[in-house]
Write a structure and sequence with these properties.
Layout lengths: L4 E4 L5 E6 L12 H7 L2 E6 L15 H11 L6 E5 L1 H13 L3 E5 L11 H10 L5 H7 L5 H12 L5 H8 L12 E5 L8 H10 L2 E4 L7 H4 L1 H7 L5
Parallel strand pairs: 2-3, 2-4, 4-5, 5-6, 6-7
Antiparallel strand pairs: 1-3
Helix pairs in contact: 2-3, 4-7
Length: 233
């Protein structure tokens, strides 16, 4: 599936690929993209299938997300960053994409199996119609600009993408660090437990925690997000 992309920076710059999380799209990188462009990157942010302006599918899966990214961005970019579902997508794609460096921001390598998956799924699907006030209440650390971006992204999101999360809950998509790899964690992370973080370190990943950050680190504490990437971008 050919994906819609959003770009910043010089056309001849070193390539950075950005992959968003569930319910979002390339708009969520509105601060990250220009910053990387200022460092000389040609930044390419994708809209995953079912998100933003990309095509819809009958069913969604990690392989659909990964293969669609591979069809839509240059191979062997200098940098790839995936957040949440985007981290899972990058994990599935990384051996084929082969970025020089991979950054997984609070990634969904192992989506937890929770009791009452159906009600949780229903709740997530209902966020399609969230108001600005509801978004602000769920993310008290976000700016007004970030809240407005969230509303715009929800308008373009296919809520059926949530159903795929239940299907892969409990499975492990943790990649091998086939390229230099950083895992950046929220504080606390509801997707990566301390034991899992220790396992990642043992496998050869660098792991950094962004103190006080919620799951959407780049949207909540932008400056701290960048500081956590020192030496990687």
């Amino acid at each position: 599936m050919q994906l819609h992309t959003r770009e910043w920076g010089p056309s001849d710059g070193k390539v950075a690929v950005l992959i968003h999380g569930i319910m979002a799209d390339s708009q969520c990188w509105w601060r990250v993209g220009p910053h990387l462009a200022s460092l000389g990157y040609r930044v390419i942010a994708v809209d995953l299938p079912g998100h933003g302006q990309s095509p819809r599918a009958e069913t969604y899966s990690p392989e659909l997300y990964a293969s669609s990214v591979l069809e839509s961005v240059p191979a062997r970019p200098e940098l790839a960053i995936g957040h949440s579902l985007g981290g899972l997508t990058l994990a599935v794609a990384v051996e084929r994409l082969r970025p020089a460096r991979a950054i997984y921001s609070d990634p969904g390598f192992r989506l937890p199996r929770m009791e009452g998956d159906a009600p949780m799924t229903d709740m997530m699907m209902q966020l399609k119609h969230a108001t600005v006030e509801q978004v602000a209440a769920m993310h008290p650390g976000w700016t007004a600009e970030e809240n407005a971006v969230e509303i715009e992204m929800l308008k373009l999101w296919d809520p059926r993408t949530v159903l795929s999360l239940s299907e892969i809950a409990g499975s492990d998509h943790t990649p091998e660090p086939v390229v230099p790899s950083l895992v950046q964690l929220a504080d606390p992370s509801f997707l990566v437990s301390p034991d899992q973080a220790d396992d990642l370190k043992a496998r050869g990943f660098e792991v950094r925690v962004v103190k006080g950050a919620e799951h959407t680190i780049h949207r909540h504490l932008f400056e701290d997000f960048l500081t956590s990437l020192d030496g990687w971008i």
